[in-house]
Design brief:
Largest sheet: none
Distance between the termini: 113 Å
Structural class: mainly alpha
Oligomer: single chain
Helix content: 55-70%
Strand content: under 5%
Number of helices: 5
Radius of gyration: 38 Å
Length: about 140
């Protein structure tokens, strides 16, 4: 007798599973969702190997690169002397102070560490002089009150 009950339970379970599969298939058909178990996507094409470009000379060795380096050095030198970026742009006929800043930054990157160290030291001296001048003026204002 127990065998009959087990058989009925197995049939009922398989009927439920069949019903669930039918409902799921109907939902997929309505929503047009792909079957997750079947991958119907076309295979991907193999990527073509990229051709390597021939090696280029470093730009610093070309005539234009050498001229750029000289202008960058000149921009760094002007900045070291205390000129503003706008003054550097005017002196070198650049579009604006952003271009001058770019030249100074590029020039500092190319400089040896020793030259950059000197520039930073001079920049600190210049800023300290500005700070002292401001302190003197503030002191003069305090005395006037």
């Amino acid at each position: 007798m127990n065998e009959g009950r087990v058989e009925v339970a197995v049939r009922a379970t398989s009927d439920i599973e069949d019903d669930e599969e039918r409902e799921l298939a109907e939902l997929r058909r309505r929503c047009e969702l792909p079957d997750p178990w079947l991958d119907n996507t076309p295979p991907r094409k193999a990527k073509k190997a990229k051709r390597r470009r021939p090696r280029r000379r470093p730009q610093s060795r070309t005539p234009a690169g050498l001229q750029r380096e000289a202008r960058d050095r000149e921009a760094v030198d002007l900045r070291r002397r205390g000129h503003s970026y706008q003054e550097i742009a005017d002196a070198l006929d650049l579009a604006g102070k952003g271009s001058a800043h770019k030249m100074v930054t590029r020039g500092l990157k190319r400089c040896a560490a020793e030259n950059a160290h000197h520039y930073l030291r001079w920049e600190l001296v210049r800023l300290e002089a500005i700070r002292q001048e401001l302190a003197r003026r503030v002191g003069a204002l305090d005395e006037a009150d």
